[in-house]
Amino acid sequence: MNKLSGVATEVASVKLLIGGAFVESTSTQWRDVVNPATQDVLARVPFATANEVDAAVASAKEAFRTWRKTPIGVRARIFLKYQQLIREHMGELASILTAEQGKTLPDAEGDVFRGLEVVEHAAGIGNLQLGELANNVAGGVDTYTLLQPLGVCAGITPFNFPAMIPLWMFPMAIATGNTFVLKPSEQDPMVTMRLVELALEAGIPKGVLNVVHGGEEVVNAICDHPDIKAVSFVGSTKVGTHVYHRASQAGKRVQCMMGAKNHAVVLPDANREQTLNALAGAAFGAAGQRCMAASTAVLVGEARSWIPELVAKAKTLRVNAGSESGTDVGPLISRAARERVEGYIASGVQQGAILELDGRSPNVPGYESGNFVGPTIFSGVKPGMRIYDEEIFGPVLVILGADSLDEAIELINANPNGNGTALFTQSGAAARRFQEDIDVGQVGINVPIPVPVPLFSFTGSRASKLGDLGPYGKQVVLFYTQTKTVTQRWFDDDTLHVGVNTTISLK
User: Fold this and answer.
1) pLDDT at residue 499, rounded to an integer
2) Over the range 461-498, which residues count as b (16 or more CB within 10 Å of their CB) and which as e?
3) Residue 46: which of 77, 65, 66, 23 has the closest Cα?
4) Burial state string for 103-119 with b = 16 or more CB within 10 A and e = fewer than 16
5) What would the pLDDT profile of 58-89 be if each residue is shown by its tens digit?
6) Residues taking part in catalysis
7) Would you say residue 8 has pLDDT above 80?
8) What is the pTM of this model?
9) pLDDT at 205 over 80
10) Phi-psi bin for 72: left (phi > 0), alpha (psi -120 to 50), beta?
């Protein structure tokens, strides 16, 4: 049913990928994929059955027997081809993403591009998956390490980056010699499935990459399955904590990137125009649906007088469907998300924060059914208020004040989350002190959203992360491989030792 027009129309069903074939699920449980700007139903996605999950894992397990032996150069060339295909289909991928997720077309292209960077990184696997060698550690003895793949790995991805985050996961897992079972978000799986089609076109063999869809039951099946060796997750703190504990107890390696409350600290010496632009973009871009959104501003000293200018800057942002030219803020992913964000705004008013800009119920001609909330700003916010203590995941910026940089650092370090933070200043001394003393995984200096490029790893910390090793970069190579240490000695007639040696020595 087209929810906007009320006319019954056929919509496609999203397929599963099992053993190299796109197959129709036999599930009796389906969910509509809905355009958040119009409420049009774009497709139907199945919640895979237990047998279908088992089949996907079995396919990956069988494919691992040969894929793990595939020369590293062959693997690298597949991802060289894959990055070329992604570039050629960038416009198509962005259009699909915008239709089902809502973000603006330029932001959708950025979503794809940041994932593309990881694919390019995966193509360099020959240099990334190197072991170590120590020659002649004892008489005629050498020791070296092998970084060997684990087996079947799995990924569970969120709705807010349906291109980038799947591309964080399966390219690096597969490039290191593993096979993979991916569970995309059931809210917007279409762009993920198009990326999967391109991956097969690039040459990924059948069974090496598999896809299942679903909700809690499928997540639990992935956590419990004895043939899955590692699980990577990005999403909410509630679900991520569940996944980490359940999968860890089942003996798996697990990495979970979860919720956040990212603070942007503004010192009075910061470049005012650059800082105001950065705050507005980082708080309201993607309708605030980013785990690295700068959702909390800490204005230090005289910077507190900048609030009227920040409000004026936010008012210039255009709220509209992501497909419309010139849009700055698109819709939230669902009606439930819009109602949740509006509930947070109401709670902020009730708890005494000052509502500087109210984005509820914006006028968006032609898209009256859309899940829109405009830029919203609160000042006078304090710890203990829900709008500070909880992740809103919408276009809401909360502003706190501090008398000094030390007070701002103390405030941030007292917050349980540690995903990202930023400092705006022209003082090198202040920047150095901030980056040294702040207890947050990713730090930006005059950079509002400090997500690292794939040469480095995503390094959220504290309540924002469970697991020791982060996605992509060098850390994820260690996550997806087992280090095997080999100590060897070869004898010839001149070095042959006679007699039994009952000590631990290698001499």
Assistant:
1) 77
2) eebbbbbebbbbbebbbbbbbeeeeeeeeeeeeeeeee
3) 23
4) bbbebbbbbbbbbbbbb
5) 999 999 999 999 999 999 999 999 999 999 99
6) 291
7) no
8) 0.95
9) yes
10) alpha
Q: Which of 256, 253, 230 is nearest to 243 (CA)?
A: 256
AA identity, residue 216:
E
Inter-helix orientation angle 50-67/216-224, to 10°? 40
- pLDDT tens, residue by residue, 294-312: 999 999 999 999 999 999 9
Q: Domains in the chain, start-ordered, CATH in brackets?
A: 12-258+473-485 (3.40.605.10), 263-445 (3.40.309.10)
Q: How far is CA 152 from the centre of its chain?
A: 20
**From CA 87, how far away is CA 93, in angstroms rounded?**
10
CA distance 225 to 157: 18
Contact criterion met (CB below 8 Å) for 117 and 454? yes
Question: 420-424 and 442-445: which strand pairing?
Answer: parallel
Look up residue 216 and give its two tokens. Answer: 């809690």
Report d(CA 253, CA 464) in Å as an integer: 17
Average pLDDT, the chain: 95
Flag whether pLDDT at 208 surpasses 50.
yes
